[in-house]
Amino acid sequence: MLRSRLFAATALIAIVGLAGPVAAEDAKDPVIATIDGVTINKSDLDLSEGSIDPQLAQLPPEQRRLAALTAIIDAKLIAAKARAEGLESTDDFKNRMEFLSDRELHNAYFKKHIVDTVTDAEVKARYDKEVAALPKQEEVHARHILVKTEDEAKAVIAELAAGKDFAELAKAKSTDPNKSDGGDLGYFRKGQMVPEFEAAAFAMAKGEVSKVPVKTQFGFHVIKVEDKRDAPPPPFDQVKDQVRQMVMRDKYMELLKSSKGGAKVEITDEALKKAYDEANKAQQ
């Protein structure tokens, strides 16, 4: 029941590029099916699969292709009825097709002149530029021992002063869940810890242990600063897709700028004209 409903729903999917009959079968584009002599090729199936509803896109590959094929067949069957009624000759349909044609030409041009032209070298250069522009941000690597009372914290400080190992003492006495890691909090930046803890940790020097307990909403802390450093940038491999999007965005904005420069755009609706002009100024 679920499967039948699933494939029936594909009739609502927008199918792009459902062409008419093909004269001969191409070895690279074999015929998948025919409807009253009209062929459905592999390329049609690929287009349908690429435009399938996101929920259906999560299906296993074979079910996804079946859903895509069902969408094509349903669309062609209903399209034949629409042609029989002459719907393709209506002004509404012609206007919609012109809109869809412009949009697809826009997308094809964007892919050819922007998406396909962005190189890995450009992306890496943009990453390096963005990294160089990042403001320096300090990070602290700290450990802590959390106890319930100030007296307990003072006793811990005394034991550390007597030579006890901080990590071993954290394992033995801390109430924080990370006690098994010797109280290790890793590296953190400002804004990631509660204010009292953060203020104390960033004020301390590398290797220093807090001389007085630090009180927060969680209890009393004894802190050891293991290291201080400038925060490293995110690794290139982690953000390269976002950086590629930035490069494509900038290229697209340049394309739009050059295209608008030679075009006469007139907007008769005053409110829309004002909004359009303001949006263009903001982009510039």
UniProtKB/TrEMBL annotation:
| Enzyme Commission designation | 5.2.1.8
Q: Which reaction does it catalyse?
A: [protein]-peptidylproline (omega=180) = [protein]-peptidylproline (omega=0)
- Please give the InterPro entries that the UniProt record associates with this protein: PPIase_dom_sf, PPIase_PpiC, PrsA_foldase
> Keywords, A to Z?
Isomerase, Rotamase, Signal
Q: Which PROSITE patterns match?
A: PPIC_PPIASE_2
- Does this entry carry the keyword Signal? yes
Among the GO molecular function terms of this UniProt record, one is: peptidyl-prolyl cis-trans isomerase activity
Signal peptide stretch: 1-24
Tell me yes or no: is Oxidoreductase among this UniProt entry's keywords: no
Give any Pfam family that matches. Answer: Rotamase_3
Going by the entry's taxonomy, the superkingdom of the source organism is recorded as: Bacteria
Q: Where is the PpiC domain?
A: 137-227
Family listed: Belongs to the PpiC/parvulin rotamase family.
Q: What is this protein called?
A: Parvulin-like PPIase
Q: Which organism is it from?
A: Rhizobium alvei
